[in-house]
Design goal:
Length: about 130
C-alpha cells in the first residue's frame, strides 16, 4: 500500500536523531510490522531496546535517510520512537496522521510503550514469529 511515512528515532545510544522515509506501508499496521521485525532482530542478536535503530536499519535497507522529518511533505504518517532507559516508558512511540484533505498533523496514538503499539497494530502478533514481510 502506498502510504508514505517518516520514522524518527531519538535517545538511542551511539546515535543522534535518525529520520527515515518509507514510500509505502506507512499505516500503523505497516509500522508495527517494520518495528516488530527490528525489535525481534535486536532480541535475537542479544541487544536490548537500545539497539533498535541498528536493528531497524539492518532489516530495512531501503530506508531513505533524512536530515529532518519535514523534508518529506508527502507523508501521511509520522512516528517518533524515543528511548529513555530511566523514564516511565523506556521505549515509547507517538504516531501522527496527516489526513489528505486536511491541513496539519493529528495525533493517532501515544506516547505509548512500543510493546503496547505492537500489540494494538501488529497483524501477525499471534504468530510464532513477528517476521512477516515488512
Amino acid at each position: 500500500m502506498d502510504i508514505p511515512a517518516v520514522y524518527s528515532f531519538l535517545g538511542f545510544p551511539g546515535w543522534g536523531p535518525v529520520h527515515l522515509y518509507f514510500p509505502r506501508q506507512g499505516d500503523p499496521a505497516g509500522a508495527a510490522l517494520r518495528l516488530g521485525t527490528a525489535l525481534e532482530t535486536c532480541r535475537t542478536d542479544g541487544h536490548g531496546p537500545g539497539g533498535l535503530v541498528a536493528g531497524f536499519l539492518r532489516c530495512h535497507l531501503h530506508a531513505e535517510p533524512l536530515g529532518s522529518p519535514e523534508f518529506r511533505r508527502d507523508c501521511r504518517y509520522r512516528y517518533l520512537i524515543v528511548y529513555r532507559p530511566q523514564g516511565r516508558l523506556p521505549l515509547r512511540i507517538t504516531a501522527w496522521r496527516h489526513p489528505i484533505a486536511e491541513q496539519g498533523w493529528r495525533r493517532r496514538c501515544g506516547p505509548i510503550e512500543l510493546d503496547a503499539f505492537l500489540r494494538r497494530f501488529h497483524p501477525c502478533l499471534g504468530s510464532p514469529r513477528l517476521a512477516c514481510s515488512a
